[in-house]
Amino acid sequence: MNQDFISALSEIEKNKGVSKDIIFEALESALISSYKKNYGTSQNVVVIINKETGGIKLYTERTVVDEVEDDQVEISLEEAKVIDGKYEVGEVVRNEIAPEKFGRIAAQTAKQVVIQRIKDAERDVIYYDFIDRENEIINGQIQRVNMNNVYIDLGKTEAILPPSEQVSTENYKQGDRLKLFLLEVKKTTKGPQIVLSRSHPGLIKRLFELEVPEINDGIVEIFSIAREAGSRSKIAVFSRDPEVDPLGACVGLNGSRVKAIVDELNDEKIDIVVWNKTISTFIANALSPSKVVDVIVNEKEKSALVIVPDYQLSLAIGKEGQNARLAAKLTNWKIDIKSESQFDEYFENLSEEEQEVLNNMLNRENGFEEDIVDEEFLKSMGMYEEEESEDTVSDDVVEDTVEE
Fold first, then answer.
1. What is the CA radius of gyration of the chain?
2. What tens digit of pLDDT does each residue of 199-217 get?
3. How far apart are CA 222 and CA 402, in angstroms?
4. DSSP assignment, residue 297?
5. CB 221 within 8 A of CB 256
6. Residues near 126 by Cβ (< 8 Å), separated by ≥ 6?
7. Spacing of C-alpha 370 from chain mean position
8. Can you give the pTM of this predicted structure?
9. Where are the domains of the chain?
10. The domain made up of 280-404 is a member of CATH 3.20.20.210
11. Domain 200-275 class?
12. What is the DSSP string of 141-164?
């Protein structure tokens, strides 16, 4: 090696972010291994590289002992004193060696080590660059689609959009540019694996942060998100400043802010509702755009009976139960929806005592207030039915849980 080699390492350090010291350390270890392998020796060998000139010196090391058992690693005190009279037992004698053809071995080893270190360093740079961006939005371009996996070009590296994180209504074509949610960065033997998502609720959150300055500034906050990717999403927001309308801030002038998000999500519908600390009011808001007459809550079971006008029943439940299902996810409460006529019909069949108890829980005149009701009483009135399977939704009961 020579000065040209040192200059080349300086360029690598500058362009690839690989420290020369790391390469020198790896090179010294590799040269020792190569020497022992090529010359079949078990000696203690030390390689020292001059970091200024690139010059290489090779030494053997032997420990001074009274009685030699292995002359490959040990030297007698008498022999050591012939070399230098100052040596004592326990000290190390170092001898420089210059084996034939070692320069060629050194050159080949240096090439291999430098190439491998560059690869390792580039992988580390990519990993540490993207690991800090997990759960953030990232821009990418579709490079190719193979075996249902979509491969995204991120500039520095390639990421994967697996089938489980794709949106069924979206058509992914080579060359298309997308905003994606950086779901996970894994370290593998082949380098970092970056997993992206288009269906994660976090994508909705980050898009609102991008489009709504009040959210980015912390004035308006997102309480929860419920999403059925490609179809419909609900987002609950609230404001820390009484002068700022959270709904208006998210919608924007003439709907410009929310429209930008809807366009990015290929016309996925988005309902924006206001969070309220009173759960009955929050549940009523979550069932938007349906109007709600009354909400009775069971705090222990985290269940709620919602009464809606007859003409609003279908709207409250939504197509295939979607509106009620998303409201349940958004609030993390089980929701039972009845129309006014269904509820009145049932109410007429109650005893006077039961009617009086139920009347005390109704909020029709006073708005939605949080009521804690007895679980067994509600069950005795048939207001909560057995939990249905996930693939069926009745007109009376819609139950679900929020995925964090």
1. 36
2. 999 999 999 999 999 999 9
3. 15
4. E
5. no
6. 156, 157, 191, 192
7. 36
8. 0.69
9. 3-130, 138-198, 200-275, 280-404
10. no
11. alpha beta
12. EEEEEETTEEEEE-SSSEEEE-GG
